[in-house]
Amino acid sequence: MIETRNFRILRNVVLTILSLWVAIPLYVVVSTSLKPLKDVAGLFQWIPREITASPYLDIWTTVPLAKYFQNSLIITVCATVCSVTVAVLAAYAIARLQFKGKRAFSLTVLSTQMFPGILFLLPLYLIFTQIRNLTGLQLQGSYLGLIITYMTFTLPFAIWMLSGYFASIPKELEEASMIDGTGRMGALFRVILPVAKPGIIAVAVYSFISAWGEVLFASVLTNEATKTLSLGLKSYASESDVFWNQLMAASVVVSLPVLIGFILVQKHLVAGLSAGAVK
Amino acid sequence: MTHSALESSPADAGRSAPNPAPGQPENVTAPPARKPRRSFLPYGLILPAAILEILIHIGPMLLGIWIAFISLTQLNLTNWLNAPFVGLQNFINGLNPESTIGQAFFSTVGRTLGYTILVVGFSWILGMAGAVFLSSNFKGRAILRTFFLIPYALPAYVGTIAWAFMFNQRDGAVNQILVDTFHLFGDERPFWLLGQNSFGAMIVVNIWQLWPFAFLMLMAALQNVPNDVYEAAAIDGASLWQQFRTITLPMVRPANGVLLMVMSLWTFNQFNIPFVLFGASSPKEATLVSPLIYQNSFGSWNFGLGGAMSVLLLIALFIASAFYIRMVLPKGADND
């Protein structure tokens, strides 16, 4: 819009309010994570009386945080890599190839995106039990069960966004490559993927964030050995009291990988979204 | 080319597209097939996705429907293939509007709809405000943009934990501001995570997490609006509000349909926030549909009832998804 004086005043007011709205909870988390436990117990202090890094050291011993971290990292990275790979292949077929059943496939993939996890939770649990009874393959309480669950749940959005993105790439690019004798798959890997990098990054970030923060399936499909961070953080609260300063310190630590990743690729995310989804 | 393969009937597209007769002009209803010979390549490419979809989505969905018609309890859970078939009994027992459970279910659906409208409405307004004011160039714009996206990038449970801490009745930051600083509520500290207030508290947490997504999508949509349109409008004497209404709003309309739909579905299906805020069972004034089904299935071990509720929800969402797909598919899988 045109920058009149009124516009600028309005802009400053609105952006200040929005910034405070975003900042206050973040400030509460960070400031609490730096307080000793005795200062956390009473009425909330906006300005800490005393700053200490000890919550950041204690979190690793109060709770097996490193173990939860490792579980989350393995599950999330595997789910993201697999989901993006599977989605790239399917999205390419949808965007570029003609085949019978394409419409039915796209419809099915898209419509499953609508349904809440809760509808799948119990049936999935039952299917996993049955698979274990029949084959001995342990899917509940193992990494594998959560990995395939998470990767499937991010697939619809990933396929949809990537096929939109691939469709926006000029066909001439890959045709030139195919004339050079690379074949379709060669063209996909050498020409399309490099061009579609922003879209692929956007999808990967989406998958990572979804899997990293998931609670529902993790609550039923993990056990003590495979517990993820989303559930593990609860351990800072016992029956009688909550180590709020450590809980907040752990929250900061847990958020850092996604936040850093997100900030690094955030430009690609906006570009990927506006090309693939919003256009 | 005015028609895409998607607008022609599936059978038609299937017959003509993969294998057009050599030498003939291409069928006008289908885009030109780049690879004229019949090929298994597309099926090979979608195979992994199809297997996962069947194993994790379609199979469980069908099984979920089956569960609503059998008597599944804690006792026969591991031997569920032999659970007795009970017909419509679960629906009759649980969803009768006269019964307590039935009433709870229908009032929960109504509450969840209200919740969805409030959360999506406010998130959209905040997202729009952020997008409009950050689309003009000024110092610090890039930093603010990244900053506003943080609540969305944070793991959902971290944001919720922060709010749970702030909503603490005795010494939380919310009551510290509202009661101690502004002396609202007659200096009495309200409970935010119990009773009627818990519904509002949950809405606030959800808006805080969701609005950056609206902001992100609307900002991407606004990038395509050329500034000289606004200049022309300003010269013609259009006020800021008029510019917003007649230029900005129509420009974001294409993105809006998908955005509102996606946000509504996420919010309607919300589970994480109440689960972290209240634990496995929410206060009854703040129970949403997903937590209710969870409570019925894994809390009271009444899987048949949870299944019957799931089936009703499935039907409702299926209708909603038909509208959604109409908005999304023509572009998502289009060739041209």
Explained architecture:
By secondary structure, chain A is mostly helical. In chain A, 76% of the residues lie in helices and 0% in strands. Chain A is built from 13 helices and no strands. The two termini of chain A are 20 Å apart. In chain A, 50% of the residues are buried. Chain B has helices at residues 10-16, 41-67, 89-95, 100-134, 141-153, 156-166, 173-181, 195-222, 227-235, 240-268, 272-278, 289-299, 303-332. Chain B has a domain at 100-299 and 308-333: MetI-like fold (Orthogonal Bundle), CATH 1.10.3720.10. Helices cover 66% and strands 0% of the residues of chain B. By secondary structure, chain B is mostly helical. At the A-B interface, α1, α4, α5, α6 and α7 of A face α1, α2, α4, α5 and α6 of B.
Question: What is the CA–CA distance across the termini of chain A?
Answer: 20 Å
Largest sheet of chain B: none
Biggest interface and its residues per chain?
A-B, 112 and 124 residues
CATH topology of the domain at 100-299 and 308-333 in chain B: MetI-like fold
Mean pLDDT of chain A: 86
What is the count of β-strands of chain A? 0
Helicity range of chain A: over 70%
Spell the H/E element sequence of chain A: HHHHHHHHHHHHH
End-to-end gap of chain B: 9 Å
- What is the quaternary state of this protein? heterodimer
Query: Could you name the CATH homologous superfamily of the domain at 100-299 and 308-333 in chain B?
Result: MetI-like
The succession of helices and strands of chain B, N to C, reads HHHHHHHHHHHHH
Helical stretch tally of chain B = 13
| Radius of gyration over C-alpha positions of chain A, nearest whole angstrom | 23 Å
Question: Any guess at the CATH architecture of the domain at 100-299 and 308-333 in chain B?
Answer: Orthogonal Bundle
Query: How would you classify the helix and strand content of chain B by structural class?
Result: mainly alpha
In terms of DSSP E residues, the strand content of chain A is under 5%
Biggest β-sheet strands, sense, barrel of chain A: none
